[in-house]
Design brief:
The protein is mostly helical and 762 residues long. It is built from 29 helices and 5 strands.
Length: 762
Amino acid sequence: MDLDALRFGNFSQLGEAITDWEQMVKKLATLKSDAKDNLGGKAAKARWAGENATVTRSFVDKTAAEFADAHTQARTVARILGDTRDELVAFRDGLIEVISQGAKKNLTVRDTGDGSFTVTMNIHPDRATLPEHSQSDVDGLRDQVQAILQKATRSDTTASEALRLIVDQAKHGFSGADYADRDSAAKAIAEAKALAEILRKDPTDVTTTELNTINTTLAKYGKDPLFAERLATSTAPEGLLKFYAGIADPYQGYGADPKRLEQAKLLQKNLGVALGTATLSDSAAMRSWEQKMVKLGPEELGTDHANNPRGFAVMSNLMRFGDYDDQFLNDYGEKLVAYDKERNVENMSPWINNWNNGDLNFYSKNDRGRDPMTGFLEALGHNPGAATDFFAQPDGAGAGVDKEAELNENLKYLTKDRIWLSDAYIMGGDDKVIAGHDSLGHALEAATTGYVYDADPMTAKDPMIPGNRDMRTAETAGVMEQVVFLYGSEDGPKMLHEQSQLADSLGKMGAAYIDDIDYSMSGVGDRAKDDALFPPKYQGRADFGEQGAINFLSVIGQNETSHGVVSAAQHLYTLSMLDAHPPTSEANMNNAHDALTTGGEVRGILDHSRVQQAEETYKDEADEQNKSLGRSGDWVKLGAGVVVGGGIAAIPLPGSTAAALVVAPLAADTVGNAVNTFIGHEIDKGLEGSEKDPTEKAQLTSQEFYSQGIRQQADAYATYIGADPDVKNDTNLRDWPQHIESSYFGTGSQQNDYRGRPAYKD
């Protein structure tokens, strides 16, 4: 900064600009509130139809969000401008004071341009006596002026850099970057530049202490938009990938230094999160960075570390963590799939083979990270919007899916055509587990439900908490229609058996669409569907068709896990339907009757398929067959962990972490006696049996299994009519038990041969 620019600086116009920005912040705060409560709130409650359901509503939602971002950006700009003005005024006043003090010693400071200046002694020949000064006074004044100018320059340039980065975050609209003051924004940028210096080093020269510094900084700033962008753009994509490959290389001697191993593991997660944050920026620099990263995917990195991996192999392991830009993930995924398809040859995998020892994933004994498709699918599992786009139903497919030509090519390739291999570690891993199948399930969960597959229900600020709201759309339903067609197809039983790691995910997807499944099962064939009883919970609901729903249920019913998950969701949905239609009118009771019979038919298909598969799997092992059915009957215990709210039930997945929840719709936003009785009853049962040996396995014959199933249907019926003595005496109820029993037993073993899919046979 030039000396005169600061000394004679008039900051009144900047002050006026700050006042304008502060006024803008206040106005935008009002608009933000109006947009959220009025625009967004009314849009959420409106009944959209046709193009409005998919186009207008999305536009309204995005517009409401833009007002929030506009308010945040304006507030941040006002803060940075205000801080900078205050600092520059203080520096100007300090400079004037220092120059004034120098003048008392007959010293003059002159601006010589380009940020330079001189300090000279004034000579007055008419004065006999001059103020005393020395060379040290000259040097001292010079240093004081220089220090002030340096601080002022830093204040001005860091503010300018921060403001430009904030504005560039969004190509269209506004940035959500939020900073309390100029210093915090400047600090984030400075930390990124310092960290980039370390990331440009040869990874073999990086000490464990430096790794700890890297991880500490990334953990603190990884989700900071300015930090993330500056870090990414200060290091070339190839350099970043080489750095991580070198740190992750298993031949770095981790056995001798377990602390370095732990730091390498943290780097995978922390760097992945930071790079994801960086991709959310729409700046020209980041768009160029993303294009280079995608282009780098098929190329070998030219490093001596980690078996000289290709760009895909490294980046896919980093993107397992973080929130990434949807378009970047789709561009990356399309190129990865295209490259992979060309090399999809038996016993010729370019990724998993005897010579590739480039282990790049630290987070699973069954997943060494050599197959980049696995890490990419994990990224989709954490980025629902990108997942839905990647598996989107082709344009022009029409309502439902009834032929392979209507399948997304990515989905078809990954579920039917790709050769998947186990990538388990030799020591400690299970070579029967194909981690890629599990990740494919995670990606499909996100694509169909709109939720991050492992969203933590304890993270209150996470907008995708199960139970928060229904995230389904016409687009997610389009993916689900394809999934139902694929796994309900003639190849479905074989696919489920060979891709057993997908069973829990398929169960979660079935549970998430249980209302649409019931709707598909209502009516007569594909006619006279009951829209009044099963109204859509979202626009563009899934259309499976009756036979499609039956086929899908008959396949997922074969697996213990998926059977239990969907059974729990169906039971809760039926109970919520009873709560939504109390026996106060004939119309309500007719609805309750149809809900019970439709729910009974769905349960019948699931239970009969489970029995058939158990009989086929354990042909001559009656004891094992009974144990299998016993485990399948244990799904009722899930009721103890169910959380309901906002028309959503969050059901704990058996044998999984607390974060692995099944998100299932309910018939109404509030629950009543039937649902609460089930949840409370199961809590009591859970407490009563808490002292039993957990290794004890229940045993059920098929006869007992069916008896338990119909008893649960009967309990639901009894709960419905039990509250009012007058209801019990209603003559319209006399045929209900027979109808319910027929719906459960009338569809199953004796009909699956032509109504559903038979059990899988080895």
